[in-house]
Amino acid sequence: MRRLFEDELNELHTRFSEMGMMVNEAIYKSVKAFVNHDKALAREVISEDQKINKREVDLEKRSFEMIALQQPVTTDLRVIVTVMKASSDLERMGDHAVSIAKSTIRVKGETRVPEIEKVIADMAAAVKEMVDQVLDAYVREDADRAREIAEEDHGINTFSKEIYQRCIQIMQEEPETIVGAMDYMLVSSYLERIGDYVTNICEWILYLRTGKLLELNSNAREDDF
Amino acid sequence: MRRLFEDELNELHTRFSEMGMMVNEAIYKSVKAFVNHDKALAREVISEDQKINKREVDLEKRSFEMIALQQPVTTDLRVIVTVMKASSDLERMGDHAVSIAKSTIRVKGETRVPEIEKVIADMAAAVKEMVDQVLDAYVREDADRAREIAEEDHGINTFSKEIYQRCIQIMQEEPETIVGAMDYMLVSSYLERIGDYVTNICEWILYLRTGKLLELNSNAREDDF
């Protein structure tokens, strides 16, 4: 019985990590598509989101059955609860990749602003790095690393503010950039939200190790977006 | 033992519904603050968000303890899992109310556009109506109603598109509205996201009744935001 349960628990971990990699790929592709104006790649992100959604449902079902049939307590239960909760965060990160992909498809040859696209690409690289790291920290159950990763979210918010300022400026100076700059703003807000979800997963890693539910980044500061 | 468990389950329901009402009030106040340019009310929304976050942690702890100590199966477990998952949706709806409040504080006497503010107010009223209804459907465990409520999300997306079009137009015609219109776009995107979370809760109500995890609104359509 215990042996079987261990196997199921490992399987759950593996499938969660795989979901993380699917989401990471979706984010990477969606930004690549946006920056390269690649609508075919954007469509790929949208159609592949179904796989991510299915995986979330699969993880929910497995978690539920493991709780119902094996009646785990303490640490084991914590592992399962973590997967149940954090898989929602991953799924929503995937949804934001889809939103970025939709922005790419919406753009119809409007005037682009390479300087802002450069900042978006840098922001996306920083977000992708956070996602890579949080998946690694999850596998290692590294609570210290999780705290550090959550700190990096402040850097993501700095990118947001920079993109906002630049968009306002270019829209005022060159009205033909308005439609494109609105999309820059939206894409930046999706990336920022992905960073928030990474922070949520960091909180779950801490919970996994300590059993304590903590909020790592408060959104009570008025000057943040 | 069973008696105690029933009491705890009822308490869990009540506390979840209360959280829903707290979130609903936050959304209502944040939009009221935005439309009336009321920074004091916006600050109230931001500071009260802590209560919502605390309530989520409280619900998570209670759910976890109930699973660990009472080892519920089938229907009872489903109720607890629903609260665990849907409380995250509520918490994020609260976060979006905070984002709307932050937009209100950021605005520094820029040129406002009353026609667009009117559409935002209408959109907010429609979102608030959805939130009211989903909380009611949750209490009644009304799966049919949940399906209907999820359908209403399409109407919310229609508001989004209208606001987007109007913002683009006014920015191009009157560049002094650019800063304000960017905020309109952001507020509209937060409201739309709140509608998505309502749809998630609808899915959880269906799960509560049927044990099936279904996706009510696919985000695979390219023309949506």
How would you describe this structure in keywords?
homodimer; 225 residues; mainly alpha; Methane Monooxygenase Hydroxylase, Chain G, domain 1; 7 helices; 84% helix; 0% strand
Q: How would you explain this protein's 3D organization?
A:
Two copies of one chain form a homodimer. Chain A is an all-alpha fold. Helix content of chain A is 84%, strand content 0%. In chain A, helix 1 runs parallel beside helix 3, helix 4 (114-140) runs antiparallel to helix 5 (143-151) and helix 4 packs parallel to helix 7 (178-210). Chain A starts with a helix and ends in a 15-residue tail after the last helix. Chains A and B meet through helix 2, helix 3, helix 6 and helix 7 of A and helix 2, helix 3, helix 6 and helix 7 of B. Chains A, B: This is Phosphate-specific transport system accessory protein PhoU. Chains A, B: InterPro entries: PhoU, PhoU-like_sf, PhoU_dom.
Helix-strand category of chain A:
mainly alpha
CATH topology of chain A: Methane Monooxygenase Hydroxylase, Chain G, domain 1
The shape of chain A, in one word, is: elongated
Largest interface: A-B, 47 and 47 residues
- CATH homologous superfamily heading of chain A: Phosphate transport system protein phou homolog 2, domain 2
The amount of beta strand of chain A, in percent, is under 5%
The largest pleated sheet of chain A is described as: none
DSSP E strands of chain A, number: 0
End-to-end distance of chain A, in Å?
50 Å
Provide the number of structural domains of chain A.
1
The second-level CATH architecture of chain A is Up-down Bundle
Helix content of chain A: over 70%
Uncertain residue segments of chain A: none
Oligomer: homodimer
